[in-house]
């Protein structure tokens, strides 16, 4: 699991690569910690290379979303693949996130 | 009920109207016939009376002829008194009706010294005697007949009168003037005629006991009446009164009078009287009887119609009822057939043929957690009661086996349920099996049912199954559970006694040995499908029955254990969070062998990961080390994950799923795991077994 965060055009862009399973979730959560202090900037999570996500990964997504909403910023999931999108649909996450 | 009364009333009305019509027709006919009869009676009366009148007239003519032919001798001897006697003798001898005759001389013409002279001849005892009648005590000049003839010279007939010494005769006298040489009336010659026969004739000619005849004079004076001992004088008097009033019918219409007057002097009248009641009594009786018979006939007809209508109604009711029962039975049969498994996976075939519309046999099978649960049962008796119990059993079997996989425990629970409400004392033989499709382990328990056959490749043999007690007998029955592992390709052949006890016309049973022979020959000939084996056995049973009626429900269930290529791996982890890392490679390796698409593989991986992580995180108390074993199995049609841990009893299926409709702010962070497990698999079942939590996930991959 590889995680990078960049600031592009005033947005925080997190790129996730690999499988976000339970084993990888703690490490990923730590890596994504800066997103919890977004200071009003919009957040983009680039899922182009995210192959798999477990409920622990969803929990990270949800905590980022809750934090961002509280400061009035947006969270956009980008290029979600079929497998991950299925999971998002099964859990109802499609209705609370924005997609690009 | 209202309609029934209405139709009954309408039928009664028809009969009443018919009765009235018949009565009216009958009355009209009676009146018409009576009219004809009255005419006929009248005509006959006139014929009879006319004949009598003619007879009298004829007799009178004869007498008049006698007089005119023989009077010359009297005239010649008018002056010689002695000669007159023989002359008179000859005169009366000439005519048999004449009983006597006299010459009554007009005073002044008497040839004797006496003023009055009356020689008389009469028939007595076959002889003719003579005597001289005139004397002090017999002045014939006082006789009106004599005077009339002597004065007018016109011959006349006297009214009938009674005369006689020893016995009385009815006589009438014909008086004729005798002229002397000067042409003066010198005497009156009288001939006495006996008309006593007339009275007899008037009686003899009567047709009815109470009818009678009368003879009246020209003036209507009664001269001949029936004897008092035959007809009451009062009756005669009443009739005379009617005649005097010119009536021919009494006021009450009961007395009818017919009267014929002679068409010559002396114009006597012959009368016949009869009683209408007597004349028409016979006919009246016939008519009354006829009416009685007709009414009786109609009453019988009505009774018959009622019976017929009643019977028809009963028949219609019975037919309707039968049709309804037939319809309901057909529905019941459909319901029952619907309960049976409709689709048979490869390797399983079932056959159930009820002897009646509905039956008390059942079989069932279904797959749960990679295990095949199956049963066969036979409710004592057959028909509707058996079928109802069978339906209950079927539901109970599904309900109980859905939570419990031990056949003996399933039987125990079934038995308890059945005993609780078995007031009709029915019992059921039942066999329950649970075949693990990944391992071939067969667990089974038998409640008094026929032992199934085990069909390995080497030949059919009876499955060693302890009989135990049937269901529904004792509440506390314990059922022994047995198990064995069967080889792929083996089969279990279950049946009810309807098969082994199928009877031919000579009441011989098909027999278990016979079944075994057929199964063996099937194995030898390489009957590959379960379906063809079941068909071979049921056809053999029917061929054996050879048209004899099926005595009992016939049920067969054949389960062949034909697993595909089995894949089975397992891994044991300890409850450390790092251990979760091992799960990914283990699963990827297993799933890659099944050649699944990315989405299915991803779903399966996520489901298992969530289930296992749940155990690692929550099954054991903080700080306590435990393990979790995962079995991943597949027969290429289904994937089964079994997660076993020794932690605290915990049923994740009882946890409520996360509410996936809440918005972001209200979403709880947890609760997603079990939700995903449910969504991504076909079934999730939990059981606590031997101190362990056993969670089984299955997912079809076909």
CATH homology group of chain A: STAS domain
**Helix/strand-derived class of chain A?**
alpha/beta
Q: Please, what is the oligomeric state? A: heterodimer
Low-confidence region ranges of chain A = none
State the separation between the terminal residues of chain A, measured CA to CA: 22 Å
Q: Would you write up a description of this structure?
A:
The complex is a heterodimer of chains A (100) and B (702). Chain A has 100 residues and is an alpha/beta fold. Chain A has a single domain, classed as STAS domain (Transcription Regulator spoIIAA), CATH 3.30.750.24. Chain A has 3 helices and 5 strands; from the N terminus they run ββαβαβαβ. Chain A has helices spanning 22-31, 55-70, 82-90, and strands at 2-8, 11-20, 43-53, 75-78, 98-99. In chain A, strands 1-2-3-4-5 form a 5-stranded mixed beta sheet. In chain A, helix 2 links the parallel strand 3 (43-53) and strand 4. In chain A, helix 1 runs parallel beside helix 2 (55-70). The longest helix of chain A has 16 residues, at 55-70. The radius of gyration of chain A is 12 Å and the shape is globular. The two termini of chain A are 22 Å apart. In chain B, helix 10 packs across helix 11. Helices cover 42% and strands 24% of the residues of chain B. By secondary structure, chain B is α+β, with helices and mostly antiparallel strands. The chains are: A alpha/beta (100), B alpha+beta (702). Chains A and B meet through helix 1, helix 2 and helix 3 of A and helix 12, helix 13 and helix 14 of B.
């Amino acid at each position: 699991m590889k995680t990078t965060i960049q600031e592009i055009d005033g947005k925080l862009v997190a790129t996730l690569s690999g499988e976000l399973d339970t084993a990888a979730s703690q490490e990923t959560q730590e890596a994504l910690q800066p997103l919890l202090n977004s200071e009003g900037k919009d957040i983009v999570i680039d899922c182009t290379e995210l192959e798999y996500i477990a409920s622990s990964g969803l929990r990270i997504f949800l905590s980022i979303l809750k934090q961002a909403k509280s400061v009035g910023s947006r969270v956009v999931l980008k290029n979600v693949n079929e497998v991950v999108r299925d999971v998002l649909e099964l859990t109802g996450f499609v209705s609370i996130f924005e997609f690009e | 009920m209202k309609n029934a009364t209405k139709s009954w009333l309408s039928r009664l009305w028809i009969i009443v109207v018919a009765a009235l019509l018949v009565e009216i027709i009958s009355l009209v006919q009676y009146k018409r016939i009576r009219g004809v009869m009255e005419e006929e009676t009248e005509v006959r009366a006139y014929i009879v009376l006319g004949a009598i009148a003619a007879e009298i007239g004829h007799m009178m003519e004869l007498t008049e002829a006698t007089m005119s032919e023989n009077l010359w001798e009297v005239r010649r001897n008018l002056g010689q008194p002695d000669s007159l006697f023989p002359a008179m003798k000859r005169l009366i001898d000439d005519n048999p009706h004449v009983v006597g005759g006299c010459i009554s001389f007009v005073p002044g013409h008497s040839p004797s010294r006496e003023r009055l002279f009356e020689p008389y001849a009469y028939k007595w005892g076959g002889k003719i005697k003579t005597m001289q009648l005139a004397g002090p005590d017999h002045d014939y000049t006082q006789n009106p007949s004599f005077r009339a003839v002597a004065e007018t010279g016109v011959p006349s007939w006297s009214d009938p009168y009674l005369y006689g010494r020893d016995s009385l005769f009815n006589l009438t006298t014909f008086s004729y003037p005798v002229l002397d040489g000067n042409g003066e009336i010198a005497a009156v010659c009288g001939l006495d005629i006996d008309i006593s026969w007339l009275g007899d004739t008037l009686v003899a000619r009567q047709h009815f006991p109470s009818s009678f005849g009368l003879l009246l004079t020209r003036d209507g004076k009664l001269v001949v009446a029936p004897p008092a001992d035959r007809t009451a004088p009062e009756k005669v008097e009443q009739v005379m009164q009617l005649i005097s009033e010119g009536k021919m019918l009494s006021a009450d219409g009961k007395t009818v009078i017919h009267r014929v007057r002679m068409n010559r002097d002396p114009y006597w009248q012959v009368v016949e009287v009869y009683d209408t009641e007597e004349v028409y009594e016979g006919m009246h009786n016939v008519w009354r009887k006829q009416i009685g018979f007709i009414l009786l006939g109609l009453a019988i007809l009505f009774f018959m119609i009622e019976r017929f209508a009643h019977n028809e109604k009963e028949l219609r009711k019975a037919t309707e009822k039968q049709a309804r029962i037939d319809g309901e039975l057909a529905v019941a049969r459909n319901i029952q057939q619907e309960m049976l498994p409709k689709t048979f996976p490869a390797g399983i075939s079932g056959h159930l043929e009820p002897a009646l519309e509905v039956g008390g046999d059942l079989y069932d099978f279904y797959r749960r957690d990679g295990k095949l649960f199956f049963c066969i049962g036979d409710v004592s008796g057959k028909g509707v009661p058996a079928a109802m119990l069978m339906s209950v059993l079927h539901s109970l079997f599904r309900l109980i086996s859905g939570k419990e996989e031990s056949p003996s425990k399933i039987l125990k629970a079934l038995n308890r349920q059945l005993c609780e409400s078995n007031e009709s004392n029915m019992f059921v033989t039942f066999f329950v099996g649970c075949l693990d499709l990944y391992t071939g382990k067969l667990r089974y328990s038998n409640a008094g049912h026929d032992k199934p056959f085990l069909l390995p490749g080497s030949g059919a043999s009876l499955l060693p199954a302890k009989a135990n007690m049937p269901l529904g007998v004792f509440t506390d029955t314990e059922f022994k559970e047995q198990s064995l592992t069967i080889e792929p390709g083996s089969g279990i052949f279950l049946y009810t006694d309807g098969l082994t006890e199928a009877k031919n016309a000579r009441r011989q049973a098909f027999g278990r040995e016979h079944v075994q022979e057929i199964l063996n020959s099937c194995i030898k000939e390489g009957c590959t499908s379960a379906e063809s084996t079941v068909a071979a056995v049921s056809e053999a049973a029917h061929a054996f029955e050879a048209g004899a009626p099926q005595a009992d429900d016939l049920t067969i269930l054949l389960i062949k254990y034909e697993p595909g290529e089995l894949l089975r791996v397992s891994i044991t982890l300890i409850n450390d969070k790092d251990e979760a890392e091992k799960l990914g490679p283990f699963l990827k390796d297993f799933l890659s062998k099944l050649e699944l698409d990315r989405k299915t593989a991803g779903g399966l991986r996520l489901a298992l990961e969530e289930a296992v992580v749940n155990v690692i995180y929550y099954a054991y108390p903080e700080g306590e080390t435990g393990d979790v074993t995962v079995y991943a199995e597949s027969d290429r049609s289904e994937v089964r994950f079994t997660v076993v841990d020794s932690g605290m009893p915990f049923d994740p299926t009882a946890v409520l799923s996360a509410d996936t409709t809440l918005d972001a702010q209200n979403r709880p962070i947890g609760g997603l795991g079990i939700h995903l497990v449910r969504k991504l698999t076909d079934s999730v079942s939990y059981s606590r077994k031997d101190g362990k939590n056993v969670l089984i996930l299955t997912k079809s991959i076909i």
